Amino acid sequence: MRTIRSGDRGDDVRDVQQRLVALGVHLDPAEIEGGFGHETESAVRAFQQRRGLLVDGRVGSETWNELVEAGYRLGDRVLYLRMPMLRGDDVRSLQRRLNSLGFDAGREDGIFGERCDRAVREFQRNIAMRQDGIVGPETLHELERVRPATVDARSGAVLRETEALRRMKATLEGARIAIDPGHGPDEPGAAGAEGLLAEADAAWDLSVALAAELDRRGAQPLLLRERDEDPPVSARAAAANEWGAEICLSVHLNAHTDPRAEGSMCLFYGNETTSSPSGQRLAEAIQEELTSRIGLTDGRTHSMSIAILRETRMPAVQIEPCFVTNPREERLLSEEPFRRDVAIAIARGVERFLGARPGAQGSPGLDDRASNGQARLPA
User: Fold this and answer.
1) Rounded CA gap, 181 and 104, in Å?
2) Residue 145: left (phi > 0), alpha (psi -120 to 50), or beta?
3) Is the pTM of this model over 0.70?
4) 131-179: per-residue pLDDT in tens?
5) What distance in Å separates the CA atoms of residue 209 and residue 192, rounded to the nearest whole number?
6) By three-state DSSP, how is residue 238 classified?
7) What is the CA angle 332-55-61, rounded to 5?
8) Which of 57-61, 123-127, 286-290, 367-371 shows the lowest mean pLDDT across its residues?
9) DSSP-based three-state secondary structure for 370
10) What's CA 349's distance to the chain center, in Å?
11) Shortest CA distance to 249 belongs to which of 164, 335, 308?
């Protein structure tokens, strides 16, 4: 689809506006007739912020898909496992209700996958229904009877992931680490301040350095694209899932209109109602290494619901160690020793994540290895 932005007119603009209005946004009728104006852009930005998307005020494919998904309420349609998988806020509500009852529907990401299907069938078995995995009026009636929507449903998925993280003892040795070099030749991302680098090239060079460092430390890294490839983000996430990756590291560079913007930021999965404890812990460990060891400005960690974090089934982060639009940081990114330092910091952060447990006193040393066992977080 084309990216819809300020100044555009047409049926697709009206469709966006009508979906925003249906979600409770007030737009002046004159703006709806006049095209994509200031009110619409402000509403899109607020929606993107709320949904954990890149906030740019434009409606690309990811924002459009989220607008569509936000319009579904549980009961609006029959839910079941199919390909492509059903997505929407109705699926997220179902996952939350099932998880709160003790049926493991997986992370509450709004994607009706195999784990959600198993949870539905297990729920149906427990209340002596036909176990067909179809969430229609009958299953919804029983779900409402057992767990009314008015009852606060605490996320069982977050509790399970937190407990798995607390018990985890693992090492980097033999770990399957998927590395996603952001962007690609078809969509190169932000341009460097001085024209030295495009984001896609800088992300590739950093990813190659990271793969070499992880390999040196005994891990099994896998790049999710080649230098001359630009697969869709969903395809990259699917490749990581199919390979059985235990961690996914997506490498991007930040950008800003102000060339003084600088520093490192790490993103982990989260939306309005839930987040990934393991993703957050991994992001914090990597961010601490990047800022304390290299001295990068701390842009902190943030939860987002972008596709590479939402669709992967393992602890995943998006790492943005520098602003390619900052002249000084662009020059650093072009230097091999700096890229190696970034790779070492990220690898150390991964080691800390695998060996450290939340609530433990102190942190493992930079070269420490957790002992006794290779238990991993469940996929």
Assistant:
1) 32
2) alpha
3) yes
4) 999 999 999 999 998 876 655 556 677 777 777 777 777 789 999 999 9
5) 20
6) helix
7) 105
8) 367-371
9) coil
10) 18
11) 308
